[in-house]
Amino acid sequence: AASAMPEEMIICGQDPVLDSLTRHLEKQLPRVRILRNYVGSIDGLSALYHGRANVATTHLWDGDTDSYNIPYVRRLLPGHAAVIVNLVYRTAGFYVARGNPLDIQDWRDLLKPGIRLVNRERGSGARVLLDEKLRAAGLDRNLIEGYDREEASHLAVASCVARGEADVGIGTEKAALQVENIDFVPMQQERYDLVIRREDAGTPDFQTLLAILRSPAFRSEIAGMGGYELKQLGQIIAEV
């Protein structure tokens, strides 16, 4: 029956916060298999829409409204009511060589001759941020060297820059702390949210998930990891 308790919970997303969340869920829901799908924001919402995931995480900036996630959840889950819960705030910006020798400070700088970008895959929050910033500023992405070179994670992008294979990449400050020989140029704070279908929100398993997010133990664990702001952790941002 539709009301049967699920035997597995599929969580989409890549952030290390989700590693901690998974461990807590495994402890508190031993009969449920917690599965991870390491896809970007748009693919996660698509999986949620198609019933291939139970939880999606997303950090998608919308240039028209200068806001995160809500416009995308509305568009990508048509006909499905969803609950958006905050996980953390993160800082997004540029990975550059130590000392920022090419003085990359702004989105326009990516179009300077000779600057080589390493990009993220389509559908990832970092890629959407770049594309929306270029669109908002009327900048032509075809003028960016390396725009078509893609890596599938923040760490892979950062390490590409560290090895000197690219001059700049886009990602979170958190990943920059894990890679030597690069600097981080902060560009904006992003809201990293968790999205579930409204019909799932009231079930015991998802109430357990929310309780974990709001627990002092989880909060102090994430705070100890560094690189995150927890001002709205576990709060419902919107129901759409």
Characterize the structure shown.
The longest helix is centred in the middle third of the chain and has 13 residues, at 125-137. The mean pLDDT is 95. Helix 1 packs across helix 8 (204-213). This protein has helices at residues 17-28, 41-49, 70-76, 125-137, 154-162, 173-176, 198-201, 204-213, 216-225, and strands at 8-12, 33-37, 55-58, 61-62, 67-68, 82-97, 117-120, 150-151, 168-172, 182-197, 236-239. It has 240 residues and is of the alpha/beta class. 32% of the residues lie in helices and 27% in strands.
Quick summary:
It is built from nine helices and eleven strands. It is of the alpha/beta class. 39% of the residues are buried.
Overall residue-averaged pLDDT value: 95
**Which regions have little confidence, pLDDT < 50, spanning 5+ residues?**
none
Distance between the termini: 26 Å
- Portion in helices: 25-40%
- What is the number of strand segments? 11
Radius of gyration over alpha carbons? 18 Å
**SSE order, one letter for each helix or strand:** EHEHEEEHEEHEHEHEHHHE
Number of helical segments with 4 or more residues:
9
Shape: globular
What is the makeup of the main sheet?
Answer: 9 strands, mixed
Beta-strand residue fraction: 25-35%
Structural classification: alpha/beta
